[in-house]
Amino acid sequence: MVKLRMREQLQRTRMQRSSAVGIVILRVAGLALLVSATLGWASTTRGPDGGGYAATDSVVYSFIDISSGGSGTSVLTGTDDGSVPLTLPFPFQFYGQNYSMVCVSSNGALYFIAGVGLCGSAANDFANTDLTVAPPPNDPPALLPFWSDLSFAVPGSGSVIYQTLGAAGARRFVVQWNNAYPQGSQNPVTFETVLFESGNKILFQYQNVELGAGDPNTQAGRATIGIHNSGGLQSGQQLPWSYDARVLANSTALQFSNQPTIVATTTTLASSQQPSILGQSVAFTATVTPAGAGTPTGTVTFKEGAATLGSSALSGGQAALATAALAVGSHLIMAAYGGDTNFSASTSAAFTQNVSYNICLLYDPTKSKNSGAAFPIKLQLCDGGGRNLSSPGIVLHAAGITAVSGFSGAADAEANANPDNDFRFDSTLGSTGGYIFNLSTNGLRAGTYSLQFTVTGDPVMHSVTFGVK
Q: HSE-up of 1 (CA within 13 Å, CB side)?
């Protein structure tokens, strides 16, 4: 009798609210959206609330039907205004509090509880409220996917079914209200709540909530949807999605999460010198560009293959690392941004950094030789500081000569002084030895020429100049 009087009072309140506000239903791409005739708005995103939760309906619908195949556990069969305590398969954090148990109500609500004895009061939750005005009975922390006066005591109705899916670390706890009949409706609704172990996300999914235009319960017309923490009316730790409004459609979903939206990033890498000289410092600069607003923070790690060269903190979207430790050769350098709470990690494409020897001349390139005479090209391999690194094990090979006028040709040694056109190592050159190439100038006209040569292990083609008169 008490329940009947409460239902009648609730119906009168709904009629007064409906006539005062005026509700219009729009359908956009198959999704029902609530539009207030007096306020003129439509929304698919809510929050964040006082606890950092945000909600969106732009989430992919993928209903997990655990009613078929007998894989789930069925409870509350044949009940009206019933509830059952369930132990969660993993700790779930809700508004900063970890919970290990929930109380599932037949009336489309799920409450977080500290003990089995706290579940009995859920039997009085048949009258849904507007969360902006009043909390659920006894003000528990609550998930309200379709809080309404639902029944499993009607012929043809189903039950609540629950099941844990997935491996540890990525488990999902699914609670499905299967074929629950709203008060006064000839057709049932089917929906579910999914709790995610990873990230503590909450997903509401609606398989069947369209009951016909003449049914006041259709599309959540007599239901409260949202989440609520104890004391949420005062603290703002609640996120109402709707109250007695036709905002749902079949095959849609709502996601509630207090995880910030992660913005994708792109990392690029540049070098201060290309090529660089052995022993001289080269600076690598990584630039992290977000796909949206904001400035990424965190650390960038610079690597050559699996080896770490060093790390640097981002400042203004950039991080730099200077090193003089790279050996002669080609180095594939990458910059890996680790991400932060708002921006995703990203890694740059491999950047090829060439490191070359410094060429120290042991002749005067400004003095010319007569055409036809041998020109002794003498030099040493050095680092950036001028230290001689020449050795018999490093081979220099003459590749050709060019002139400013555009002449090009083979580099020939005088009287076969340099077999295979390789420079000859001479330990008497300088203090620790060097290289000599007795270049033949036969047939060369007067002018300035360049001799190109390669060095073992050096990725750069080197050149030195000489003059012919």
A: 0
